[in-house]
Amino acid sequence: MASNITSFIKNVQDIMRYDPGVNGDAQRIEQLSWLLFLKVYDSREEAWEIDDDDYESIIPDELQWRNWAVDNQDGKALTGDEFTNFMNSQLIPGLKNLTININTPVKQAIVPEIFADVNNYMKDGVQLRKLVNRVDSLDLTDNNTTHDFNNIYETILKDLQSQRSSGEFYTPRALTDFVSMQIKPQLGESIADMACGTGGFLISGLNQLSSQVDTVEDQQEYVSSVHGVEKKAFPYLLAITNLLLHGIDEPDIIHGNSLTKNVTEYSEDEKYNVIMMNPPFGGVEQESVQNNFPSDLKSSETADLFMILIMYRLKSDGRAAVILPDGFLFSTDPSKQRIKEKLLNECNLHTIVRLPNDVFQPYTGIHTNILFFDKSHPTENTWFYRMDMPEGYKHFSKTRPLELKHFDKLIDWLNNKKEIIQDDQPKAIKISKDEIAKNNYSLDYAGFTEKEEVILSPKEEIQNFKDQNDELNKKINQQLEEIEKELGDK
User: Are the C-beta atoms of 201 and 230 separated by less than 8 Å?
Assistant: First the structure.
């Protein structure tokens, strides 16, 4: 199976490399992804037509995959300039401009939403026909092929490991699966990710729920359990396709910015039982966005605002797991202190796991952490655990990625928490809320005892330097703003 996946990916990449219009991996992945979406969507429509005799597609007949993509080897299939002209002047504009209204089902309304930002990069109509034929050769009616297709899709997501944009990092599947295993979502609970990217946390949540489905009613709860929001167009496309692949025919994924509504205006119906997130970090939000948050908690940093949002949108007794950089945990910035104070006073921050340095390589070498908390009661004590690199590993890479088995020791510890001293330093330690408060709400415990060796390519070294430079400039700008405010008050 793995060889088939490798063969498919190599084949489609080779086809696009011969096309003069496709420039780089990012465009190749985007081109393949929207074609895969149309293939998957057509397959789902065939199923909907069987289930509902009155089903009518939102897509006109001439734009449906089965009517333009399928090559019956009779010489009638579009190819060459005629094919690229069809793509650019009929298909993409036609799907982009489909008419929808408040009564349009979600599973149909997603089509024009997705194609609002889609591009056809390919200029060679012969290569385009080869690519479409290769995608169409996937038989989604066969369970083995469907499983294979899911793995192909996972491979595409892994290729995104070389793509990064303004602090948004694609979370490794092993990490989302581990988090979901610890949160243990239950059928009937709402599961949300308000910056869902490609939907990794939502899919891991669904995987936890799938074994709980026994009846038709259970299935109805299963398909309506996950909720997401994604700001960027390309990850939104991937998230929708990801959920369709996993049997969610009406994906509740909003294409928008979660931070643009006043957090005090959320009703109980807009809160969730489970929130699992890896918020964008390193980003800066405009004043208009910051004004949606209480003045005493206001911050310009995206990750800070998401932490506030999570606290407002988590139901009473709800559970959350959030991945955040060291900057949030250790900073003594007044706004971050107040956010952490609110977190400890209103939620039970029971566990913080410090992840190995390069879990998110090649995006960033910034240390990250998982915060596990719930809304059962205020924090009394917080456990800190340092997850070291697996034995025999100096760093993770594309060929030696983070795997679920690497969490085995951590899982054992989570089932039997106790303090651990290693090389005269705490690897696991319990700290009281009072002690954290006395330490100005710094969460700097169970730190790494020595710098981990991370081997990067020259390109990654340059990007790492840019990240550090951006972080330094941001800190300088924040200090200048504080100085200017003080001078303005005098």
Answer: no
